[in-house]
Design a protein that fits this description.
This protein is of the alpha+beta class and 609 residues long. 46% of the residues lie in helices and 20% in strands. The strands form four sheets. Strands 12, 13, 14, 15, 16, 17, 18 and 19 form an eight-stranded mixed beta sheet that branches. A five-stranded mixed beta sheet has the order 9-8-7-10-11. The protein has a three-stranded antiparallel beta sheet with strand order 2-1-3. Helix 12 packs across helix 13 and helix 14 packs parallel to helix 15.
């Protein structure tokens, strides 16, 4: 805890209600954060009041503040310009600092009789040939990858001719992506011709290469070299497919940047897709650890990104709100000496590009955190849909199952990082009443679950019932939700809770919140995740119900046997899970497993035989 909070708050309350820049410093006098404000007094004093609304990042920063300075400005725009200049000058610890990942990239063509093509970041002093430098590593990697596929060039670590004939062709050869020089399936002269054509493709582009290949194919056909003509035809087709894939990622706006993000519990990734001439020319990724509130982070990212001597396009498309869109537009317009527009699309082509950009950010984040892209993207999409501050890592879902009010049970499933955590699943038998009442059943289950949490907390347990979920999902609509909200309030818990609504065909339709239904089908990754959770929870609950019903019927059946009371039936069912196991067991086997007297075991055997 910062012992100077009172002193800092008193100082902040004396600040003027004017625009300006504030500079937070630690005990050593080092600058740890720089911010701007429309009204200095209001903004700075908010740091030193109650910390209930502060994010973890802000709390950590405030704990280290020993003093602060401030500079009054005439306008908020002037404050923004000064803030950007000071951040660039001092690189404070708690500001978003973007490392420029745009180093130079080269295409390397190794020397020797069997050269290989690859994309590299450094130009070495070896005998290889280098093309470049190129600014966009992403575009270059895509180009090299397409060249290797089209012309059947290897991407493995084998060396030729050393490794020729030593191994069988890999999967790439069998799916038509490699000519397999490792197995001797291609002559050296043909291989060199493929490398030469691939280099021409990289230098000249697809249209020029396609024209040359067309002429070569026609000439081969005239010379009755039909096998060669067929290979050239296949290359032209592959080239056409590659060109079509490239055309897909286009924009009706000739010059614009798309900025979108994906988030996990501990990191936020911004992706920037640059369109020039209507085509995607580059994509960059920036990861921020311990992110703040998304709107603030998005605002600061835009400021930092375009204050780093980057080209500012006429149009910048965002995946969500920023703090002051008019102020940013004014600043960007003045910085680029032309009008700049900030746009948040809701539908159409631009929304599709935003979703593509967000998915690429999720993929980049998933690789860093060793998760699947779908799970990262689905949880991020779900958090946005439900207005959660961060993606839910630990989700609990509940469903009730019964037959006309008989054998009333509930199932609780758990999904961690978008995956079922079956070790944490729980079963409940409804105890407080008999009959059919899904609302009361759901309320009872949630009440018992959080009573178990309090018990686990006293024992110091942090797994199972001792761990609170980030999100609760109920199978049902507004009625189930209304039934459990008083339970949550009675336990003093503030956990996001929603209902999962099905349509007339028992398919997931929407999420129910306090203000009504939220349609999720347009958000296909979140929809798939919710549908999976709902189906799994239903399966788990109904399986428990069926097993309970069978067990009740079996109990009634066993009670007909002389000498079989409640304790002996319980011991028998504990040792033999299925009726088939009881039927197959001998009297001696039953006695050994349960401790029931042999005479009674013989009666059990006789009953089923």
């Amino acid at each position: 805890m910062n012992l100077k909070i009172g002193e800092l708050r008193k100082k902040s309350m004396s600040l003027p209600l004017l625009p300006g820049v504030y500079i937070m410093k630690n005990k050593s006098g080092n600058i740890i954060y720089i911010g701007k404000a429309k009204k200095l007094k209001n903004r700075v004093s908010s740091y030193f009041g109650s910390d209930k609304q502060h994010t973890l990042k802000v709390k950590r920063m405030v704990e280290q503040v020993d003093d602060f300075d401030y500079i009054i400005c005439d306008t908020e725009l002037e404050a923004l310009l000064l803030e950007c200049s000071l951040i660039k000058q001092h690189s404070p610890k708690y500001n978003i600092l973007l490392k420029d990942d745009k180093g130079y990239h080269y295409i390397k063509i190794t020397s020797g009789d069997w050269p290989m093509i690859s994309e590299v970041k450094q130009k070495l002093n070896d005998k290889a040939e280098y093309l470049g430098p190129f600014n966009s590593g992403w575009i270059l990697k895509q180009t090299v990858d397409e060249a290797q596929k089209i012309f059947g060039l290897p991407r493995c670590s084998k060396q030729f001719p050393r490794d020729i004939g030593k191994t069988r062709p890999c999967l790439n050869h069998h799916i038509g992506l490699c000519s397999a020089p490792c197995s001797g399936k291609i002559k050296q002269s043909e291989y060199l011709e493929s490398v030469r054509a691939a280099v021409e493709f990289i230098k000249g582009g697809s249209s020029e290469t396609a024209a040359k290949l067309q002429k070569q194919m026609e000439q081969a056909a005239e010379n009755l070299e039909f096998e060669k003509a067929a290979k050239l035809r296949d290359r032209i087709k592959a080239l056409t497919r590659a060109t079509e894939r490239q055309k897909v990622i286009t924009s009706s706006y000739k010059e614009q940047d798309i900025i979108a993000s994906a988030r996990t519990e501990n990191a936020l990734c911004f992706a920037v897709m640059c369109f020039r001439g209507g085509h995607l020319t580059d994509i960059s990724f920036f990861v921020i650890n311990n992110p703040d509130e998304l709107v603030l982070d998005r605002t600061e990212f835009v400021e930092r990104y375009y204050s780093s001597s980057r080209e500012i396009p006429k149009r910048i498309v965002l995946d969500g709100e920023v703090s002051d869109i008019q102020l940013l537009e004014t600043w960007l317009s003045e910085a680029s000496n032309r009008a700049v527009e900030l746009v948040i699309p809701q539908k159409g082509e631009q929304m599709s590009l935003v979703k593509m950009c967000s998915f690429n950010a999720a993929e980049h984040l998933a690789k860093l955190e060793q998760k699947t892209t779908f799970e990262t993207a689905a949880l991020d999409e779900l958090a946005r849909l439900l207005s959660l501050p961060v993606p839910p890592v630990y989700i609990e879902a509940y469903d009730i199952s019964h037959t006309m009010g008989n054998e009333n049970v509930a199932g609780m499933t758990v999904f961690e990082n978008g995956r079922p955590l079956k070790s944490a699943y729980k079963r409940f038998r409804i105890k407080s009443f008999s009959g059919q009442d899904d609302y009361r059943s759901m309320a009872e289950v949630l009440d018992r679950r959080f009573n178990e949490y309090k018990i686990a907390l006293q024992k110091g347990e942090t797994d199972g019932f001792g761990r609170l979920p980030d999100l609760i999902l109920l199978d049902g609509g507004q009625g189930q939700l209304n039934a459990v909200l008083p339970v949550m309030q009675s336990h003093g818990l503030n956990i996001p809770i929603f209902g999962m609504v099905k349509d007339s065909k028992h398919r997931t339709r929407a999420i129910t919140a306090g203000g009504g239904d939220i349609s999720i089908r347009a958000n296909h990754r979140a929809y798939t995740l919710i549908a999976t959770i709902q189906e799994e929870t239903h399966r788990f609950a109904i399986t428990y119900h069926r097993n309970s019903s069978r067990k009740k019927g079996l109990t009634a059946e066993l009670s007909l046997i002389e000498g079989m009371g409640e304790k002996r039936i319980k011991a028998l069912l504990k040792s033999f899970k299925k009726i088939d196991e009881i039927i197959k067991a001998s009297p001696e086997d039953i006695k050994k497993a349960t401790g029931i007297p042999l005479g009674v075991c013989e009666k059990i055997y006789d009953f089923y035989h």
